[in-house]
Amino acid sequence: MPAYNAAATLREAIESLRVQTLKDLRIVVVNDGSTDDTASILEAMAAEDARILPVHQPNAGIVEARNAALAHAQADFIACLDAD
User: Fold this and answer.
1) Whether 17 contacts 81, CB under 8 Å
2) Which residues 6+ apart lie within 8 Å of 7 measured at CB?
3) What is the pLDDT of residue 18?
4) What is the pTM of this model?
């Protein structure tokens, strides 16, 4: 999940994944150089749920952020979701 200045919607987006019936999953969220509270929200949620993997990088755009998430993925199946 790429996230750039997504503080207003990030919790809801991640929570929608956390409550899925499939519990064996990893939620890779790439903070793409956000200047709002995205990083702190992401870190707080990751501290509550080990399935959330925060990745922080300088702003490079949605394509690079999604590619960074894919680079951290370790599953046979991948679903993409935006932070908004």
Assistant:
1) yes
2) 34, 36, 37, 38, 41
3) 94
4) 0.94
